[in-house]
Amino acid sequence: MSCRHCSSELKLELINLGTSPPSNAYLTSEMLARPEKYFPLRIMVCENCWLVQTLDFAQADELFSSEYAYFSSYSTTWLRHAEAYVDEMTNRFGLDRNSLVVEVASNDGYLLQYVKARGIHCLGIEPTASTARAAREKGIEVLEEFFGAELGSRLAADGRQADLTAANNVLAHVPDINDFVAGFANILKPNGIATFEFPHLLRLLAETQFDTIYHEHFSYLSLTTAARIFEANGLAIFDVEEIPTHGGSLRVFAQRAASGRHPQSDRVKALMAKERKAGLTTASAYEGFQVRAEKIKDDFVSFLIDAKRRGRRVVGYGGAAKGNTLLNFAGCRHDLIAYVVDRNPAKQGKFLPGSRIAIVSESLLYDDKPDYVVVLPWNLKAEVMSQLKSAGLSSVQFVTAVPSLEIV
User: Fold this and answer.
1) In this structure, are strands 372-375 and 314-317 parallel, antiparallel, or unpaired?
2) In sequence order, what E strands does 303-403 have?
3) Which of 16, 34, 148, 342 has its Cβ near the most Cβ atoms within 10 Å?
4) φ, ψ dihedrals at 303, nearest 5°
5) Alpha helices in 188-257 (DSSP H)
6) Which of 275, 255, 277, 251 is nearest to 264 (CA)?
7) What is the strand order of the sheet 340-341 is part of?
8) DSSP 84-129
9) Preceding omega of 353 cis (within 30 degrees of 0)
10) Which domains occur in the chain, in start order?
11) What is the pTM of this model?
């Protein structure tokens, strides 16, 4: 395979996680009688542009079906993050009732609902029917399409150029990253701003966050590599923020390359220097990741087996994609984790892909009172612990596996 950005041959492997189904391909009870489709999950590093990427085995339409079950609004932490983002962008860039905000991968309207509440015109672009439907129920206009250069040009030609575009946790999800980025250069007004949020490769490597790797993530990005991809496709990065979401992410600010309205901040140069110091443009930075991931997996499995031998009941919380990567890499089944709780009704009554562990509502958790709750979306650990303790689940111990086994 060649690099999805610069077409160089890929030779350097970061990690091989074996095989697993797509992480959001939840099963119904009827589907349990049928085989699942598994794909290899190997991550490679381009030694020319240093884009870290998943080898392509699954097509986008197999990963993002019409019944895609990830709904952003079920996390109160994420909703607060979205509302704060709208406040900050409105004030920083002077958005008003004459502005247009376009969000790509708008999901269930978790963010645009706050734009709409301010009386600012907004448009969502979301290819999955289930989440687009939920956004429309909030009164948000949604185009049910995949975004790219052609759609960006079409919207601009229709007079729908954006003052601000938001793309949160989607840059990693696109197979053709060049076409995707070019779409923002096309849709922006001459002085428009594009923001992107994505998990920072530097944190993934430093904390061995291997469970954030799954088929739906085609790319894993540093600021250095993102700047190169943007420059090649008509955008220029002028600012960056390090934010805590998803275990450590970047919020990147870009403008049309021909604009130059905003000078590049010192934060861009400082973070690129930090990445160079960490060796992200050398092969050595990627060595040993497989071994570290396997140790985390082994420690987690040892804990589960020990708990079973001691007669302790272990359940999971959060049917999240990162949890599915961990459970499938570790070979966990319902004999080690009895069930997984999730607040999303679209997941309840279904089963996790690969492990086939049942997904249930929170009410069972309060009746069952297990000994351990494994918080699979470890980035939401504080929210989950607070929520369950306030609901009366005070005696349970909480477990996270990444970046190392922790029992609270």
Assistant:
1) parallel
2) 314-317, 340-341, 359-360, 372-375, 397-400
3) 342
4) -60, -45
5) 201-206, 223-232
6) 255
7) 359-360, 340-341, 314-317, 372-375, 397-400, 406-407
8) HHHHHHHHHHT--TT-EEEEES-TTSTTHHHHHHTT-EEEEE---H
9) no
10) 72-286 (3.40.50.150), 289-407 (3.40.50.720)
11) 0.91
Q: Which two tokens stand for residue 24?
A: 């959001």
Residues in contact with 394: Cβ distance below 8 Å, sequence separation at least 6, in sequence order:
none
Q: What is the pLDDT of residues 392-406, one digit of tens each?
A: 888 899 999 999 999
> Which of 55-69, 85-99, 239-253, 261-275 comes out lowest in average pLDDT?
55-69
Q: What DSSP string runs through 54-72?
A: EPP-S-HHHHS-TT----G
Beta bridge partners of 400: 406
Helix axes 266-277 and 223-232, enclosed angle (nearest 10): 120
Q: In angstroms, rounded to a whole number, what is the distance separating the alpha carbons of residues 42 and 60?
A: 17
pLDDT in tens, 253-291: 999 999 878 999 999 999 999 999 999 999 999 999 999
| Residue the block writes with tokens 């001691």 | 310
